[in-house]
Amino acid sequence: MSSSSINHISQPCIYGDLISSTAERKSRFMKWLSKLFKGGGSGNRGMPGGHQPQFLGEENKVWRAPARSMDDNSRTSKEKEELDRAVALSLAEDLKRPKGYKWRTDQDEDLARSLQDNSNSSSYPPYLPPYAPSYAPWEYNPDSYRKCSGCYRDIVSGNYLGCMGTFFHPECFLCRACGVPITEYEFSLSGNNTYHKTCFKEMTHPKCEVCHQFIPTNGAGLIEYRCHPFWSQKYCPSHENDTTKRCCSCERLESRNARYMSLGDGRSLCLECMESAIMDTGDCQPLYHSIRDYYEGMNMKIDQQVPMLLVERQALNDAIEGEKHGIHHMPETRGLCLSEEQTVTSILRRPRMGGRGLVGIRTHPQKLIRRCEVTAILVIYGLPRLLTGAILAHELMHAWLRLKGYRGLSPEVEEGICQVLSHMWLESEVMPASRNMPSTSTSSSSSTWSSSKKGGKSQAENKLGEFFMHQIAHDASPAYGGGFRSAYASVNKYGLRSTLDHIRLTGSFPL
């Protein structure tokens, strides 16, 4: 909805009253007319046959009375004072109306004004409407009635509302959003649709998905917010720097009505990611072997039995410090293909949930001996299955390159081709039937076999897999992001095997 079509109207409406519906008004006018007809005497002067004016129900239609004699005595000063007092009371009542509304009492006010004018300037009785033919009632004229733009019926009597160049019954001037009549001092207008200001704000003003409040305006009066590029989660800019938790897997911020689990090392995990999280080395072994089978299905068998360990964050960081080679993804490295001999503390038993965090984690120090070019593969614990698998696929490609004698590769080339294998494995898990793998003729059957071994994934897990693929494709770093895009273009054009042969010979991707 464009801002140019939205108006916020102040003092929008003029309320009126075609015929006063209260007994007090009727009584007051009856008293005025009664005093005027009596003219201070006891007889029915000016009314042949003693007839008095007749009022026809709620519409206060008046029969024409004969003109009074020119020799009637003028009204006494007392009668004039009473008339002035009645007019003043009527005007004072208008001032008591709520601020922003102007009430019109068409017949009451006009009648009072006509009465006063006639009392000062004419000896004729002040009757409304203007005199009709002798003793004939005032005829109803349908064209003179206002039509309600809400229900399209005539506004015959009672209050009415003038707004936007037309008229409404008060109960027909409705908010388009909630359907309740608008009675406030201001309302919002978008096109021809009217809204309560609160309803319009609720409908159009973005709310923060973290604190669930309306996102505030900045110093320039503009609504400024942050939006996650994949999840489209909108939130106030202040939540990026406050204590709001962010899931270490899917990157979504914790909502005020959600509950994130603390992994005890500064990381937090949302409940969707927690559902498939892998917590210890034993739980990760089936996934590790299935990915090795995936490589074998693409004629890229890894002959060596490379140990795989799930470790805590600090243990992974310590292992990175002891590693002499390799480039690591900052600010968070979540996997490592280890080449040096080290003693690494792995997670032996999965922690259990306690309160809002995990407790009871059991670790075990393990000395890793180098028997080939690769000592071990390390992966940080507590990540969902698909993300853990993507990390394993990446690190296994590092292992395959080293075991096959690929030496001296630049970070862009090595990390780029490893990211391609990670992306390919995710694609086979999330969309196994969407396309054939760009490697060999056996890759498709391997992917189908691997997928059939596992049960069906939930829609939430598939969405997570799509997010991890999105992360790889849109990584901004030169090695991981730029390298992946170059490698992916080469694999799509020449195939995986031809790309790997070209890398072995030249150390670069084929153009």
UniProtKB/TrEMBL annotation:
<dbReference type="GO" id="GO:0043130">
    <property type="term" value="F:ubiquitin binding"/>
</dbReference>
<feature type="compositionally biased region" description="Basic and acidic residues">
    <location>
        <begin position="69"/>
        <end position="83"/>
    </location>
</feature>
<dbReference type="GO" id="GO:0046872">
    <property type="term" value="F:metal ion binding"/>
</dbReference>
<protein>
    <submittedName>
        <fullName>Protein DA1-related 2</fullName>
    </submittedName>
</protein>
<feature type="region of interest" description="Disordered">
    <location>
        <begin position="63"/>
        <end position="83"/>
    </location>
</feature>
<keyword id="KW-0440">LIM domain</keyword>
<feature type="compositionally biased region" description="Low complexity">
    <location>
        <begin position="439"/>
        <end position="453"/>
    </location>
</feature>
<dbReference type="InterPro" id="IPR001781">
    <property type="entry name" value="Znf_LIM"/>
</dbReference>
<dbReference type="Pfam" id="PF00412">
    <property type="entry name" value="LIM"/>
</dbReference>
<keyword id="KW-0862">Zinc</keyword>
<feature type="domain" description="LIM zinc-binding">
    <location>
        <begin position="146"/>
        <end position="206"/>
    </location>
</feature>
<feature type="region of interest" description="Disordered">
    <location>
        <begin position="432"/>
        <end position="458"/>
    </location>
</feature>
<dbReference type="InterPro" id="IPR045218">
    <property type="entry name" value="DA1-like"/>
</dbReference>
<dbReference type="Pfam" id="PF12315">
    <property type="entry name" value="DA1-like"/>
</dbReference>
<keyword id="KW-0479">Metal-binding</keyword>
<dbReference type="InterPro" id="IPR022087">
    <property type="entry name" value="DA1-like_dom"/>
</dbReference>
